[in-house]
Amino acid sequence: MKYRIINKERLFQGYFAIDRYTFEHEKFEGGNSAEVVREVFERGNAAAVLPYDSKSDSVVLVEQFRIGALNSDVGPWQLETIAGVIDKDNESIEELVKREAIEEANCYLDEVIPIMEYYCSPGGATEKISLFAAEVDATDIGGVYGLDEESEDIKVHVIKREKALGMIKSGEIQTAMTIIALQWLELNLNIFK
């Protein structure tokens, strides 16, 4: 099927951006749609990793303040996978998650395992997540990390896998990338044994 972008206009540029698109597209039953106007949140793409310690059957998650979760019933401090925005042209996605693991959790990863790529909310945002898992020794992992120049204040948690899964059910874990990664781990534990 085909589409045509008639106009694209940048409405806002700050930490993030908003663009307005005017477009038309082929319809499933034939012909073309009328002109459609939509604003799109230009978030950029990100990558995330779930470190897993198979010896202790624990995962490494980070907790930080998230402005978008102000209205969350558990509050704006969210438990998440380690993640970062893809913004360096000379850095592979695998290198990005390894660097972010060091910056956010003082966690060193040797090999990362691709889980999947997915769009967070393609009806109104461009962000695509590249999601990974990695085996780690979580014995000495913990503390508070993050980069001052990125205004990061990140607390590291080592949580038993079963407890983390329970935290999805209880609503304590509410971020999609974390839920997807933990559910993937549950289905693919044999990779780490």
Give an overview in words:
Helix 2 (161-169) packs across helix 3 (176-187). Helices cover 18% and strands 40% of the residues. The protein is built from three helices and eleven strands; from the N terminus they run E-E-E-E-E-E-E-H-E-E-E-E-H-H. The model has no long low-confidence stretch (mean pLDDT 95). Strand 1 and strand 2 (17-25) form a beta hairpin. Strands 4, 5, 6, 7, 8, 9, 10 and 11 form an eight-stranded mixed beta sheet that branches. It has a three-stranded antiparallel beta sheet with strand order 1-2-3, with no helix packed on it. The radius of gyration is 19 Å and the shape is elongated. The chain has helices at residues 93-105, 161-169, 176-187, and strands at residues 3-13, 17-25, 36-42, 46-53, 58-65, 77-80, 82-85, 112-119, 128-135, 143-145, 154-160. The protein has two domains: 3-42, no CATH class; 46-192, Alpha-Beta Complex (Nucleoside Triphosphate Pyrophosphohydrolase). It is of the alpha+beta class and 193 residues long.
* Rounded Rg: 19 Å
Number of beta strands: 11
General form: elongated
Order of helices and strands: EEEEEEEHEEEEHH
Q: How much of the sequence is in beta strands?
A: 35-45%
CATH architecture of the largest domain: Alpha-Beta Complex
